[in-house]
Amino acid sequence: MSEQFRTQRRVEFCETDAAGIAHFSAFFTYMEQAEHALLRELGTSVVRHEGEAVVSWPRVSASCDYQGMVRFEQVLDIEVAVERIGGSSVAYQFRFSHEGRPVAQGKMVSVCCRIEPGQPPKSTPIAPELVARLRRFLVDTSSSASP
Amino acid sequence: MSEQFRTQRRVEFCETDAAGIAHFSAFFTYMEQAEHALLRELGTSVVRHEGEAVVSWPRVSASCDYQGMVRFEQVLDIEVAVERIGGSSVAYQFRFSHEGRPVAQGKMVSVCCRIEPGQPPKSTPIAPELVARLRRFLVDTSSSASP
Amino acid sequence: MSEQFRTQRRVEFCETDAAGIAHFSAFFTYMEQAEHALLRELGTSVVRHEGEAVVSWPRVSASCDYQGMVRFEQVLDIEVAVERIGGSSVAYQFRFSHEGRPVAQGKMVSVCCRIEPGQPPKSTPIAPELVARLRRFLVDTSSSASP
Amino acid sequence: MSEQFRTQRRVEFCETDAAGIAHFSAFFTYMEQAEHALLRELGTSVVRHEGEAVVSWPRVSASCDYQGMVRFEQVLDIEVAVERIGGSSVAYQFRFSHEGRPVAQGKMVSVCCRIEPGQPPKSTPIAPELVARLRRFLVDTSSSASP
Predict the structure, then answer these.
(1) What is the 3-state secondary structure (H, E, C) of chain A?
(2) CB spacing of A62 vs B58 below 8 angstroms
(3) Which of B44, B80, C69, D87 has minimal CB crowding within 10 Å?
(4) What is the arithmetic mean of pLDDT over B46-70?
(5) What is the pLDDT of residues D55-105, one digit of tens each?
(6) Those residues with Cβ within 8 angstroms of residue B28's Cβ, 6 or more apart along the chain or in another chain
């Protein structure tokens, strides 16, 4: 029932390491870039200015399990789904594969925050229109165990 | 009873992002660098050559929970402990703080692998001397719940 | 007379710094990625395997002059030209702009090297077919001063 | 006559690439980190807050010539000298070596800027006390050709 957001990312040379493969930390920047691409697809940005304030999405947690390796110039297929939408947070799931072979899967929880100049970030409710648009990618948990 | 390995890391400018803080992905490189410093402390390296083969430690999983923020030039105190030693894997725990304030905590599981030229990595038992040295940092799980 | 290779690159969040702009070091990875995209366009790769040997292109110099700034999610237009083709080296020129506004210009000299296992890289003549294809992007120096 | 500022940097695993060596772009972050360490040594920081304004040092140019390679866990010795102090700019020279073997040399020009909130950076004269302290590392150009 639910839809997946799909994007691709070529492994760049500076992301490989002396073991000849994409460095494990690169997958966290790939997840972030996929999250930002999804938000652009939904007509918004991960950083929005509202007068002097900024509305942004700091992460509270990130994790990744590695199942395979990818090398320089290989293209990763990235599927993004929304696991859960809270009052001010979104939990994303990511699946990375290369030519159908699983490479990694990860999770990231981002919290919608309002940041006034000189103040620490304060969590703020996600705009209802964005919640509605994010639902399009919400994992259908009724029929399947969440991964 | 158990000991913690302690190291420090200054937040470099190129690791900050437009939100003015250390980018969340930087913590994964901090964890890796702390793991490598620990292995050097124990008299070995994360990459060792044995004839034509390489013995290295690819990661199978990594995760981080963020509790606070750090800015450019702030110095992170990093505590590393060993949560579990398996036949060929080590699970590490990391705690990041700045001047006593918790910033993040993470986990990483690395697998000891032997890599012959042109072959995929194959897991291999951890050398008994290294197991003995790693035990020094093993979390005492008898008296406390693991974090 | 000469043609320019054109590519684009969106500034990712992890490439910005606490000054809110793309970090100056990111332009060197952009140049490298544009060089690699050009080589793919010409039907080759910056890393090719020939039996046990690898033919690759280490850099001998790189430089960049900054004229403007770019922020998160802005898209850079990148023009690549070939300034000079030597026996085993290629000098590239790069111009970065955002919506017509100049942002930076850089140069990079790469040397074609053959790397046998366990040996240091040795410069090697560029394959004649590749020289022929690279000429398509050679700056016409007869009619204009080189930038 | 002149003094050199010396610092060290271990090559981290995430800075190596699939060629097994420190990626060429890493040297630009090493230069920046050495510049920042020099400014800390002189009792200041590359980012200072003056009320609502920020005084910082954007780069106008950076370049590097590569003479050798360094691998994971090798320690670079970095020598920093000041080539020229202008009204609002400083030109730095960097020499990288590993166990006495030259690895790279680079240059970087930074401009002292005052950044008011919501305004583009404006170049501003370097504070006279900082000029006096920087002179300690000024290359003695009377007796030797500049490198």
Answers:
(1) CCCCEEEEEECCHHHECCCCCECCCHHHHHHHHHHHHHHHHCCCCCEEEECCEEEECCEEEEEEEECCCCCCCCEEEEEEEEEEECCCEEEEEEEEEECCEEEEEEEEEEECEEECCCCCCEECCCCHHHHHHHHHHECCCCCCCCC
(2) no
(3) D87
(4) 92
(5) 999 999 999 999 999 999 999 999 999 999 999 999 999 999 999 999 999
(6) A24, A25, A28, B62, B64, B106
Q: Which portions of chain C are predicted below pLDDT 50?
A: 143-147
Q: Dihedrals φ, ψ of A55, to 5°?
A: -105, 120
ipTM of the complex: 0.91
Identify the DSSP state of B71: B
Of D13, D14, D18, the CB nearest to A72: D18
Helix, strand, coil % in chain B, rounded to nearest 5: 20, 45, 35
pLDDT at C142: 58
Instruction: Specify the pairing of strand C75-85 against strand C5-10.
Output: antiparallel
| Pairwise CA distance, residues C85 & C37, whole Å | 18
Does A13 contact C73 at a Cβ distance shorter than 8 Å?
no
Q: How confident is the model at residue B80 (pLDDT cuts 50, 70, 90)?
A: very high
